[in-house]
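Need the bound structure for flavin mononucleotide, inputs here:
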Amino acid sequence: MLTNELKEILGSNICYFATSTKDGMPNVIPVGLVEPIDDSRILIVDVKMNKTRKNLRENEMVAIAVTDVEKLRAYQLKGRAKVVTSGDLFERAVKLVKEKMERRRRRLKDKLEKEDDPEIRKKLEEMMKRELTPKAAIIIEVKEIYPCM
Ligand SMILES: Cc1cc2nc3c(=O)[nH]c(=O)nc-3n(C[C@H](O)[C@H](O)[C@H](O)COP(=O)(O)O)c2cc1C
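Answer from helper R.:
Posting the output first, comments after.
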């Protein structure tokens, strides 16, 4: 169901992750710690979620939107989420955070080398020091996929 192309787009772009309360009040957040697991499941790492986690306790139905501006592709996915805080999939989330943080630090370092504005330099330095601790792996079983282009 998840094509190789869609897996690539999900793993390399910022996605927008929508949840809602049991009464249908929506909430949408940007997420970058995203990795397809197989042909029907996606992992998202919770490092800083609040309302999203509360919503998932009440309502497992979720949606994701992702756009790849380079490839001119955009998709909407719908599915069911479950939260995992131990075991193989949680370990996979820990590994993903480590890998993505290393890449992010390298990108920030390159930016810092070219940046002259002291305020932006300060922000970049702070961002480079920041550690992210995985709180949970959110596993989404994808049920529907719609192209948006
Ligand atoms: C570009 C970007 C990517 C982000 N990626 C993640 C992520 O993968 N996991 C996460 O827990 N928070 C991530 N965040 C932070 C959440 O989007 C943010 O903490 C949000 O306010 C949580 O909202 P909530 O309380 O409604 O869940 C990201 C933020 C930005 C700006």
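Comments: The chain has one domain: 4-147. The domain at 4-147 is CATH 2.30.110.10 (Pnp Oxidase; Chain A).
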